[in-house]
Design goal:
The structure holds 2 protein chains of 2 kinds. Chain A is α+β, with helices and mostly antiparallel strands. Chain A has 2 helices and 2 strands. By secondary structure, chain B is an alpha/beta fold. The radius of gyration of chain B is 33 Å and the shape is elongated. Classes of the chains: A alpha+beta, B alpha/beta. The interface between A and B is large, with 63 and 84 residues. Chain A: This is Mitochondrial intermembrane space import and assembly protein 40.
Chain lengths: 138, 726
Amino acid sequence: MSYCRQEGKDRIIFVTKEDHEAPSNAELVADDPDDPYEDHGLILPNGDINWNCPCLGGMASGPCGQQFKEAFSCFHYSKEEVKGADCVENFRGMQECMQKYPELYPQEEEAESPPTDSDPAPPSTSEDQLPPDSPSAS
Amino acid sequence: MLKCRAAWRRLAPLARASSTLCRQNAKRAVLRNERRPDLNCSQMSTAPSGGGRENTLYVVLVGAACLGGGVYAYRTVLGDKQRYQERISEIASRTRRVEPEQQKVQTQTEPAAATEATKDVPEEAEEPQAVVEEERSPAPAETSAPAEAADLPLEAISDPPLRIDTPNQPVAPTEEIEPLSNTPEASEPSPAPVLESEVAPVAVDESISEVSVQLQDVPVVESEHSAAVVQETAVEPTPVVPVLPEHAPYLLIGGGTASFAAARSIRARDPRARVLIITDEQDLPYMRPPLSKELWFSDDPAVTETLRFKQWNGKERSIYFQPPSFYVDPVELTKVENGGVAVMTGKKVVHMDVRGNKVRLCDGSEITYDKCLIATGGIPRNMQVIERAGEEVTKRTTLFRKIDDFKSLEKISRTVKSITIIGGGFLGSELACALGRKSADVGLEVMQMFPEKGNMGKVLPEYLSNWTTEKVRREGVQVLTEALVKNVNFKEGKVEIKLKDGRVVKTDHIVAAVGLEPNVDLATSGGLEVDSDFGGYRVNAELQARSNIWVAGDAACFYDIKLGRRRVEHHDHAVVSGRLAGENMTGASKPYWHQSMFWSDLGPDVGYEAIGIVDSSLPTVGVFAKATAKDTPKAATEQSGTGIRSESETEAVAGKMSPTLSTPIPPVAKDDYGKGVIFYLRDNVVVGIILWNVFNRMPIARKIIKDGEQHADLNEVAKLFNIHED
């Protein structure tokens, strides 16, 4: 059983697990998916890529940002059966660029993963996030 | 030209004096001559008598002296001009040679060569520090040792005497050249003496004027001097001429979190954007939270050098947002093909000309911009009683904010016996806990004092603040509550703090964590409004102060559509507002909408995340359950794999969290606020939420605040958080 106490202007309620078992009847306002002010995830409502998504880390803004954008755009819009099969050139360009900056893009098998080391980004409610792969993990 | 002016200025008084003398003598002579006619009626005599002859002689001598002086001045001025022209042409020819070199990744130093002024500092390379003198035997042509982190690409001019040009007038040319922002030479002073400051006082003297001639040849390296390690470079050892940008499409003033977030946002949205960050710190952009938390818990003895912190799950990262190789050299910024972010360290912006869209730096150079962001943050406040207490006390006081403060406090904590922290807010309490943790190992007495009744007294409701204070005490800190400092003295080798209620505290070192003074230095020159309630630059909901000028971070007093006008001094806010400012600078026109959050850890057992207006003077409703072992900050970060709590949201993927069976424990007599949710109300609307030892629920909290609804039963709202589960 929960119990409740008042200390001046502050109210304190203690609850047990059972107390909170029943679903909440608090009403939340429905979100407008087209809200222009809202932060979006990786993919914008109109289908474009949100390069400013925190999930990308510094990939789109670093020295190889241009190459990354080209490669990833190509991949995103690719209609091939094997998605991205027509983007090999772009990815190669990106990889070449990244090899010039080993400190920023530590050499791994997947050159696509954004380094989480560099991400100071705020929380975002994005569904399609790239799985962050930290260089110093493993 | 300007050299001529300065030369003339110097000679002018001399000339004036001598000419006055001339004139006076002439006048006197004339007068005397005039009078003589009255007396003697002989006008024609040029040398009337012995006295007249002496006069004439005198006049002649003085006249000759004047003439000689005039001739000398003229010749010097001409000579200056000529040398100047020579220099310019030499440099111009060097600039052409420089460019191909700069493309190569330089990791070696360039051996000395001509003057300091002509050095460039390639980003990844070390600073070449060489001064070439042939005439001077003790010519220290030192080439710097390999790569110092390219953290110091540019520093302010430090050694005017190192400039050469006119003999006996070493200082003048530097000053003249500086204001010449439109010529390449102007840029010399700035990057050049970077290296100079490293060089032990090199007294450059007259012989250097000859150097300009030698500049045409491959410079000679005088490396007979010990310290220097001369590295022969594969690169042709010609000094490089740095040309600092005179225009930056995106200019960010301040090199902290907000600035970096804006830079990233701009680069993401505007392809090939060229962003210039100007900071008066010596460090590249870094994050502050670990300076008072994680860095103190590191096991690495070299942590003050590496500035890497290990997160709870073992993953390590640096406090710097990006390593130096991410950034472009400012000199390259206008040329690099795909744009980039360049950082000019050690430069302060002192004047802002809004009409002309330009700023002026401390060294006199000017930079124009298209869009400008002011993210100057603030400086820690000091207490008047400490400032008035004299040097012995002030040199034993730390105002904690930057990397250097962390380094020095870390050192101090190992050497002194007792440290007192004044201030009971976030910074004070975090530092107290961090130092308290160390106190056991190193035998350090840690005390914390503040005027409130408990730690975080202005943020947490009283019951929670008291509970927190107990926790802090358990971390090894002696907490003195309701402590108002009356005065501070240095007595018998100890700093003595006298409180208003009579208590006296004797300690070795003080850390003052009493607030932040936002930096609004550019308000006057820029014609920008400063907020009288919250401090900081007053900006609108889109963070704009005036056309083309935005403000973000600690220095921005902005209009929050949901919560009203406020100014927030937290890390995540700097990121959010920086990002938003960057978006708006690239045309987005979005208001502040995504609420930023903040967090704090008070030791490994107590941590909380909060969002919105969290002010203890508001009425609150707290809903608590008892904490299990799973509910600690440690566990939260282990799950999400990050140390920076705001990031854990970005990276968490739904479904990772596994519900645990937490045994339902009835509330005990002594209330244990293990974990729960606290709502802060204003007119019955939730404006702030604290998640107490409950993690990864921030999106729900954000949603509740965004809705701004009046909820009848907050217990029902609390259910949304599932506080009993992990």
